[in-house]
């Protein structure tokens, strides 16, 4: 059945209106109470021995697939992926070395949440940033917005999803800690409220200034994160971005607010193209007659 110009415009208008509504919802402020009461995790790189118990526990709890080496002998992920949400890597430069844990940082004001036009990514009142598969339509704006490169896409699937660490929100709902923390045998990982973890990190730096750089990564970066880090090695050497204290959505919101205008413009352009083409076809039919 041919689509009339009026039907086309009504469809375009409905699409733009729906986008504006969902954008307004995703850009709304997320009231989660006081940040110091949100669930937090402290990773102390000086205590990590690289056993990868946390990495294996994450895979087991979330039922993700191992990424085997070329010989197929052992799990050997090289980066975070849709199947690897927690990763331990080794940094070494001459005699200086350190292990480092990579995962979702669970920002206090997440750029991924502000960038998502359909609220598929949401920050829970407890703190973790979780993902709703029923809402996502695969725009991958969250991947572009995240300064840590955390959200990953299932490129190999016909119906792909975004995948990342959820801070074990399902375990927290049961009153138990994240799987990676519970599995750590050396105390490199601890969890509690953000206020408690910051106090613990500051206490360790104060008591052992020779062991740590005087910096808690995640205390202020990008507005603050729930994943907090201590290290003997400067964080930029471990691959962490140097971020201002300003919350990242302050930058992404401007771009997202421009998207509805772009859609309106494209809708107008498509409507005009449709009208011109229809008129041209009608003129051609009249000439033939």
Defining key terms:
289 residues, alpha+beta, Alpha-Beta Plaits, 3-stranded mixed beta sheet, two-stranded antiparallel ribbon, 9 strands, 37% helix, 13% strand, elongated, disordered N terminus
Structure, explained:
This protein has 289 residues and is an alpha+beta fold. It has a single domain, classed as Alpha-Beta Plaits, CATH 3.30.70.20. 37% of the residues lie in helices and 13% in strands. The strands form four sheets. It has a three-stranded mixed beta sheet with strand order 8-1-9. Strands 2-3 form a two-stranded antiparallel ribbon. It is elongated, with a radius of gyration of 24 Å. Residues 1-32 have low confidence and may be disordered.
Question: What's the short version?
Answer:
The chain has 289 residues and is an alpha+beta fold.
Q: What is the strand and helix layout of this fold?
A:
Layout lengths: L4 H23 L11 E6 L8 H10 L24 E7 L2 E7 L8 H5 L5 E3 L5 E3 L9 H5 L6 E2 L8 E2 L5 H5 L5 H5 L5 E5 H14 L19 E4 L18 H40 L1
Parallel strand pairs: 1-9
Antiparallel strand pairs: 1-8, 2-3, 4-5, 6-7
């Amino acid at each position: 059945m041919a689509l009339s110009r009026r039907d086309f415009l009504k469809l375009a208008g409905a699409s733009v209106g729906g986008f504006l509504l969902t954008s307004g919802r995703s850009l709304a402020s997320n009231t989660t109470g006081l940040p110091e009461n949100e669930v937090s995790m402290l990773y102390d790189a000086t205590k990590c021995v690289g056993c990868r118990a946390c990495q294996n526990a994450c895979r087991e709890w979330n039922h993700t697939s191992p990424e085997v080496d070329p010989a197929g002998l052992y799990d050997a992920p090289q980066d975070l992926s849709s199947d690897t949400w927690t990763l331990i890597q080794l940094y070494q430069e001459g005699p200086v070395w350190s292990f480092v844990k990579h995962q979702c940082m669970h920002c206090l004001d997440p750029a991924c949440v502000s960038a998502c036009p359909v609220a598929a990514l949401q920050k829970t009142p407890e703190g973790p940033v979780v993902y709703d598969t029923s809402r996502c339509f695969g725009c991958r704006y969250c991947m572009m917005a995240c300064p840590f490169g955390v959200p990953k896409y299932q490129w190999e699937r016909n119906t792909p999803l975004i995948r990342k660490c959820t801070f074990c929100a399902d375990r927290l709902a049961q009153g138990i800690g994240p799987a990676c923390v519970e599995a750590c045998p050396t105390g490199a990982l601890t969890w509690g409220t953000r206020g408690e973890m910051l106090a613990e990190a500051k206490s360790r730096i104060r008591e052992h200034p020779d062991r740590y750089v005087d910096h808690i990564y995640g205390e202020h970066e990008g507005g603050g994160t729930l994943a907090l880090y201590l290290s003997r090695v400067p964080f930029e050497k471990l691959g962490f971005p140097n971020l201002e204290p300003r919350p990242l959505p302050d930058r992404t919101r401007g771009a997202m607010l421009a998207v509805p205008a772009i859609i309106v413009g494209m809708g107008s352009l498509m409507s005009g193209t449709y009208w011109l083409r229809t008129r041209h076809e009608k003129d051609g039919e009249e000439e033939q007659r």
